[in-house]
What does this fold into?
Amino acid sequence: MEEAIKQFHTQFLWKASIANTKKLRSVKTYILNGMGGSHLAADLLRMHKPELDLLVFSDYGIPRLSPERLKKSLFIASSFSGNTEEAIDFAKEVLKRKFPLAVIAKGGKLLEFAVKHKLPHVVLPPTKVQPRSGLGFQIVALATLVGDTELVKELAKLSKLLKPHTLEEQGKELVMNLRGKVPVIYSSAKNEAIAYNWKIKFNETGKIPSFYNIFPELNHNEMTGFDTVPSTQELSRTLHFIFLTDSTDHPQNQKRMRVTRKLYQDRGVSVTEVPLTGKNALLKMFTSLLIADWTALHISRHYGTEAEQVPMVEEFKKLVRS
It folds into this structure.
C-alpha cells in the first residue's frame, strides 16, 4: 500500500486507448455503472466538470429514467477487476435493450463480454493495486472515453505536479488526533466526492468505521445530534470531525463551517480542519486524497490492521454467490 501511494502520480502518465471506436456513438449524456472503487473516478469527474451530464448508477439493472434519456445516453459499465456482479448485470441489460454500451475494465468477465460483443472498451493497465488506489488510471480512462482531450492533458500534468511523499507527515499528524476515535468527514456539497473518498479510505485501508456529510444540509439535521447533555456526551466523544475547508466554497458555506466547528468544540466535540490546497482544482482534489491515503495507512498501522486487501468484501462475495 505504501508503494502504491508513493507511485500514485505516475498513473497519470498512462495513455488510454479505446478499442472498437467505430461503435462509439457521439452523445452528450452518459450513464455509468460502477461499484465501490469503480465509480470513484466518475464521482470526481462529475465534481470537476459539473457541466458534464454524467449519471452514476450503483445497482443491478439500469436506472429508471425516461425512454428519451435512456435512448440518447451512452452507457458505461465500469469494473476495475472486471468481475463486479452488478456491472456485469448492468452491461447485459443494456445490451438486451440495444442501448449503446462501452466498458472500462482491467480484465475479467466484463472485458470478455466487451470483446465478445465487439463493444467500445478501455483496458486498464494490469496493475495489482486495489481499485481505490487505481483512481488515476480510472479517471484517465473515463476522460478518454467521453472524449475530453483537454482534461486528459490536464491529468497528465499531475504526474509532475503531485508529490505524494511530501504529504506523508500531514497524514501522520492527523492520526495523532484520530487514535481511539471514529472519523467523520465534512465538506461542502461541491466537494462531496472528496469527502466520500476520505471515508472509503478509512474503511478499506484503515479497516475502521468512518462516515461523512455535507454542508449546508447537515446544519438542518445531523448537527443537532451533537447538542450534548451529560447523558449523551460520551457518544459524541467517540467521534472526531475532519472539516475539509475550501477557499473557493460559497462564502456562506465557509461561514457555516466556522460556526459549526465552534459549536462542536464548545460542546466538547473534537474537530480538525484540513484545507484543500493546490494551484488548480485537480491538484487540490488529488492532494487531499493523497493526504487521506497516508492518514488511512498510518491509522491502519496504529491499530495493526491489514491495509491492502479487503477480506470481508471477498468473504461477502463468496457468501452471496453460494
Q: What stands out?
A: The chain is about 45% helix and 15% strand. The first strand starts at residue 18 and ends at 19. Strands lie at 18-19, 29-33, 53-57, 73-79, 101-105, 121-123, 182-188, 211-215, 239-243, 270-273. The first helix runs from residue 2 to 6.
